[in-house]
Amino acid sequence: MAPAVAVAAVLADPSLLRCAVQPLVDLERAVVAGWEVLARVDERLGTGPAELFAAAQDPDALGALHVLALREARRLRPDVPPDTFLSVNVDPRALADAEVLEELEEWGDLGGVVVEVLEGLWPDDPRPVLEGLDAVRSAGGTVALDDVGAGWSGLSRLLEVRPSVVKLDRGVVARLGTDPAAEATVRAVGELAAALDAWVCLEGVEQPEQLLTARRLHVPLVQGFLLGRPAPAWPVADLARVRDLGAPARRPSGLGALLLDPAPGQLDLDPGGRPRAVVAAQPDGTPWCHPVTTLSPDTDPRAALARAMARPAPDRFAPLVVTAGDGRVVGVVNVEVLATAVATAGC
């Protein structure tokens, strides 16, 4: 069946569109951190999900397909395993569709939900897309930018979207372990992601050498056939393969010795326990919310201090928030203490 005909068939019979999930693995902790929801099309239609959505050239058809896919994903949400997130894919063009945004509103609080948008395929006017992403964040959701590196607009798109998760294109991942330039690309994206307070995820990990390279580069999240194929909820991930790599080699320095437990009320958390703001008292006693700067526990203190000092003056000395791979709070770091540690070479 031609993809365009398949679009009409799915819109007429939504049962032809189903979903599967694929685990995203936290490499440091060797646990499943989240699940990406992937559309699946009834095999009788003779077309795949990528072809199906690509064939929906009409904006209304594209939006209607997304609504159906999101409804399927929403049915999974009550049963998401504890301490994991659910990630859904949305074509950036569909984020301008009122019905798509209404469906996301039906989800309620989006804490623990990641909305992935493709790096390419953006409309000429990105403002409706960015407004849709702002609505996702306002509802407590997290934004990921998918397929980074697959198009020419990757760097500018990163700066435009400011995602919390950066998913590197599988074309780069496929070369890890055999192409030094691919490793350099992962390092560069990792540094840029760190400056944006984002986590890097490698997708399409299919070979042991790719997994080993990801561990060596301290990539937080990976997914791919090597660790778990898409399947009905909830497939078992091959975590033994990660454990067999042994404990991750620690960087020479980190923030562990400087961590403090957050004071009561110091952090505004979403329902999933992820930080939304750092709360401080103004001289008159009224609360003031600072944007969150998140870091991983093994961030070098010098890099952490540089990040803190690069913030706008009103936020420069707000505590830094250290989080695990799933975004949950590990502790906070006082910037003055951090500066002293760096100045005295204590870290």
From TrEMBL:
<feature type="domain" description="EAL">
    <location>
        <begin position="1"/>
        <end position="244"/>
    </location>
</feature>
<dbReference type="InterPro" id="IPR050706">
    <property type="entry name" value="Cyclic-di-GMP_PDE-like"/>
</dbReference>
<dbReference type="Pfam" id="PF00563">
    <property type="entry name" value="EAL"/>
</dbReference>
<protein>
    <submittedName>
        <fullName>EAL domain-containing protein</fullName>
    </submittedName>
</protein>
<dbReference type="InterPro" id="IPR001633">
    <property type="entry name" value="EAL_dom"/>
</dbReference>
<dbReference type="InterPro" id="IPR035919">
    <property type="entry name" value="EAL_sf"/>
</dbReference>
